Structures are given as C-alpha cells and as structure tokens.
Amino acid sequence: LGSDLTGLGLNLNATENLYSTFMSPFAENPSLGAEPQFQTPPCYT
Amino acid sequence: RERSLQLRENNSFVQHMLETSFQFVPDALDSDRPKYYVPKTPYPVPAYYPQVPLGVFENPSMFEKLDIDTLFFIFYYQQGTYQQYLAARELKKQSWRFHKKYLTWFQRHEEPKTITSEFELGTYVYFDYEGAWCQRKKAEFRFEYKYLE
Amino acid sequence: DSETLRLREQFTMLFTEWVRLYHFPGSNDKASAAFITQLQQQGILKNDDLFYLFFRVCTEVSVESYIKNRSTNGSHHLAYQGVDALARMIVLLIRDQEVPASGAGSVNTGRLALMTKILSIIVLVLVHSHEQRRNHFNQRPFFRLFSMLLNDINVFESQFQVISFQILSAMSNTFHTLRPQFLPGFAFSWLQLISHRFFMSRLLLAENQKGWPLVQKLLVDLFMFIGPFLKQNELTETIRLLYKGTLRVLLVLLHDFPEFLCGYHFSFVDVIPHSCIQLRNLILSAFPRNMRLPDPFTPNLKVDQLPEVHQHPHIMSDFTANLLPNNFKQEIETYLKNRSPTSFLIDLQSKLLRTTPPSASDLDSSRYNIPVINALVLLVGTHAIASLAGKQSVIVSQQFTAGAPLDIFQHLAADLDTEGRYLLFSAIANQLRYPNSHTHYFSCVMLFLFAEASEEIIQEQITRVLLERLIANRPHPYGILVTFIELLRNPRYSFWTHSGFIRCAPEIERLFQTVGKSVF
Prior knowledge:
The complex is a heterotrimer of chains A (45), B (149) and C (520).
Chain A: no helix or strand
Chain B: H1 2-23, H2 28-31, H3 60-63, H4 68-77, H5 82-93, E1 97-99, E2 104-108, E3 114-115, E4 119-128, E5 134-144
Antiparallel strand pairs in B: 1-2, 2-4, 3-4, 4-5
Helix pairs in contact in B: 4-5
Chain C: H1 2-23, H2 29-41, H3 48-71, H4 76-79, H5 81-95, H6 107-133, H7 140-155, H8 157-160, H9 164-177, H10 187-194, H11 200-205, H12 212-231, H13 237-256, H14 258-263, H15 265-270, H16 277-284, H17 328-338, H18 342-351, H19 370-387, H20 398-401, H21 404-415, H22 418-429, H23 437-451, H24 456-471, H25 478-489, H26 499-502, H27 506-519
Helix pairs in contact in C: 1-3, 1-5, 3-5, 3-6, 5-6, 5-7, 6-9, 9-12, 12-13, 17-19, 19-21, 19-22, 19-23, 21-22, 22-24, 23-25, 24-25
C-alpha cells in the first residue's frame, strides 16, 4: 500500500519551492545543511 | 544458459556494488563546503566603515609610502592576506629579514663581524612585536641562515 | 614510461601548489587568476596529451588525498581540500578560457569543449576506481567534486550566462554516462547529484523547457535501475533507502514542477513496475499549478461539464516509439481509419506478447510487452479523441460507441487472458489523471467496458485496477477517484449487484462498505 509520504521530511504544503533547500534525498531532514546551523551560546538566552 | 549465467553474474555484481554505494552514502557534510554566514540582508553601514580592504591596498607601490610601523602592523594583524604578503615584500626591500624561529624581523645595524656559510654574527635591530611593540638593538647576535625566511 | 612519470611528478607539484594557494586564507581572485594564467602559458592546456594527463593526475591526487585523510579520521574540510581546489580550478579555467589560438569558434565553444574534456577525464578516473577497488570503492570524493562543480558554476553563473545551460547539459550527459546501471557503486551519489538544487532545478527552469528532456532521461535511468529491485517482495535496507530517496525527489518534482511530471507521465509510467502503485500514483497525481480541481466527492459532480475536459494534455513523451517495430503503428492507424481488416483484431493479441523471455533485470516478468500495450492504448485513445473533437458529450456520441477505437478495446477486453486484461485496464487507468480530454475519454472507456462487459470477470478486473490505486497511500490521481465514484454512484452500472466480487470475502465486503459510505 506504499507509505505515508508526509513522513519523508518534506513540507508538502509549503508555498515556497522545495528544490532550493533540497540538500539530500537520503536525509530524514532533506533540507538539513541548506542553511548554516547556528548554536547561540547559553549566555545569550 | 550462458546469457543467464552472465546476467546472474552481473546481478550479483550490481547487488555487491550497490551495497558498497550504500556503505559510502554521502551525507550533508559531503555535499558542500562548510557554510560561511552570508548575510541575507546586511545592515547598510556608512562607506567609511568598509567591509573589505580598499582597492588601494591591492597596489604594491602603495606600500612604499607606508611607514615602518604600519608595515609591521599589516604584517602581524592582517595575517594570511594579500596585504600581509605585500607588507612583507616591502619590508624585505627595506633590508629587513624575517627570522623563522623568533617570528620577527631583523635588520643589520652595522656590517656583521663574522659571516660564514651557516650564519652571520653582529649587531642587529629587531622588532619586538610581543613586548612593547618597538624596535630594539641586539649586539653579538648570531643570525643562522637556516632560520632566514 | 619515465617521461610520463616525470610529468606526473611535475603536475602533482603544480596541483599541490594550486591547492595551497586556493586554501590560503584570504586568497583572492587575483592570485587565482594569476595561477590560471600561468597554467595557460605553460601550454599544458594546448597539448591534448598533457591536458589529459594533467587533469587525470589532479583528479587522482585529490581523490587519493581524500581517501588517505579520511582513513586517518581527518576532518571533512581537510579531506576535501584537494577536491574543492580542483573544482574551483576547473571553473576558473572555463571562465578564463582564452580565445582559441586558431581563432576558430568562439570563446564559448572553447569553454564547452574544455568542460566536456575535463568531465570525460573525471568519468575515466571514476570508472577506473569503481572497477579496480570494487567493494572498497569510495564514491564520496567524486560526489564532492561534482557537487562543488555545480556549486561553483552557480557562484560564477553571472559570468557563464550564455553557456551555463550548455554546461549543465554537458553535466547531464556525464550523469547519464554514470547511471547506476553501469556504475552501481555510485548509485547513491548519482541520485543526490541529479536532484542537486543547482542542477535539476536549473535544467527544469531553463527557458522553453529545453532542459526537460535531459531530466526526463535521467529519471528514466533511475526507474530502469531501481525497478527490478522494487519487483521483489522484500526490500533490503539498501533498496529501501534508495527508494525513499526516489520518493523524495519525486515529491520535490510534484510540488515544484508538476507540469514536468504531467508532460512526461507516459515515459515514466512505462518504466515503473506495475506493482509499484504508489510510485506510479505519485506521477499520475500531478496536475498543472494553475488548475483548481473540484472536490471529487461533490454530490452530482458533472465532470463532463468541466471546461477542462475539452483541453488536450501536453504529451511530451514519444509514446509511439514502441509501436514502430514490425509496422505495428501503421497497422493500427489503418484499422482506425478504415475499421478493417478484421484480421487485425484477430492478430492483435499476439502482437502484444514479448518476443524474448523476461530476465531478472527486466522491469516486469510478464509474458506481455507492457510498453507496447501502454502505447497501443494511448495511440488508439488519441485518435478517438481527435475524432470526437467538438462533441458535447462523449459517452452518448455515436462515434464513441460504434467506432473503431472501442472495437479494439472491447475486443481485447473480451479476448485477452486474465493477465493481459489486467495490463490493458491498467494502461487505460494510467490515463486517468487531472481533468483533461484524455482523462475524460478514458474514463468513459473504462465505464463503458464495465457496462457492456460480457463476463463478470471483466467487471471484477476493472474494479480491481481502480480500487488498488485508491487503497494505496496517497496521493491518488484525480481521474481514478472520479471514475470510481461514478462507477459506484451511477445506477447505470448497477455496481452493487455484482455480489460475485464485491462480496467474495468478508474483508473485501467490508472494504466496499467503507468506500461506499465515503462515496455516498
């Protein structure tokens, strides 16, 4: 019966396009890495 | 039969190599160089706060006009840049020599007393970039050529 | 020989110098350009042998440095220093390409020739490594090299303006050469590269859709490779990940480029095993973004009155190609035109069979030639639709009920065996998509065959073909939904009287009750 495609990590309801942040077809979060990953030091919270 | 054998052999090759591909599947780090932050909407700063060195600093002849302190400043505070390279070149032109061990610049204060194929011995002026950021004189100093940059 | 060895050493040193310069902090374009000019002045690029050897050395050195670095758990960034530098060198060389000394051709011609030559060398090194290292083959440095090439072409796009499409086209040909059927050890990298955000989307967004055939070819390569694996009941973890990757790529296409999937639906469905229902549904569910689909469950929905049912979908696939052997297409068109000779119908069934037995690496193990059946159905349908042009309602039109096209469908529905009939109805169901003239016509055909069926098995199989496409996880093609709802609702088909197959098992009966409830 196939699988629930909404669970593949893509925002299928997005109004903007998906391809510009599509980094890897194999990552559970396919757009990981499209933007730099920033960690804010705790002292800034 | 030969064809089916060939196909079966090919299939096992395909399966085998596909497993290899799976073993080395690229991840996010493999696809791009580490991201440097590129501001999407950089805050407009006045022109007198340039974000990159002015073009004039690309011109080697500019460095002939800079005084010695500025050359040292560029050398030590703009490391790894083209400007550092140009400052070093100008310092060399002005008879300064970089000592790889002490990581600073020396200039002959007078003709060396001794000169061999390995070293020269004499009085030198050197730049104290770690202490008082000034020039100092040092007598009886042995400059070994193996430390000449 | 010794000369080659000497050159290799020289080129290795030259490349190492470039890597150092490229990664020098704050290194700028001026310094890079100076090095590239020096490279050009040394004549390496002018002499073919030197050219090939130089880039082969560069590629090998950067790959080996990656392998060595990673084996000592060096950081990714360090490991890829050589590869990244090589990518940048290639792009700068292309950017700073001089006008050919001979003056022949333009700078851009020279650039493309340079790019094509370099890509062929990279392919050479990759294939060599794939064959030599076998299960130690590491695809990553090659993946990184292509990825950074795409990256840097994107960075310098403004300077490649005119030829950036040709450059991507050259890369597309390279990826076609590196397709998983030939290089299974590169399969995962390949899928990631063909779906790269600076590659697939660039081709699909190029003007006049001139990049679409290139992407279509690569997707067909993908389906041709993964299809035989999907046929198996149990998927290995490897295939499952590859399949998930394929689904994600299709979802991006469905979301961002539905018109592309619409245009080439036929080519894609042709290379997807017929047991992969969700994968096929994904493609058949695509509809143009400017289209609004009425809710298929709307009571009294009159699909035949939607304006779209008179619009022909844009079929970009060359779908008659499979009918050309043995003049089959010609025969079909003759029969459609003259409704004779009757021997055509008699021989038709045999022309749908395979000529060679299926093998494990085939997409399907049927004794029928499924692409021929698919092509026959679409060819007959397009002729019928052309003859029905302008008719207000298809289903009551004389031409529909007593035309040659329906002759063919009715004959096959009655004479084919179970497997053949299933494939025929499946081929018709492949045309039930978003509201358009094809969907409407084939929906009418399906319902007509059900209504006029001489045996209940025909009705059962039609029901099964429609139902199996609806009980799979979403998405569901719109045409399947409206056809099935019409079949259940319209008393003309007296669907609920066929207890022979709607009550053949308790779970089937329950299923129909559930479906009936949602429909009514």
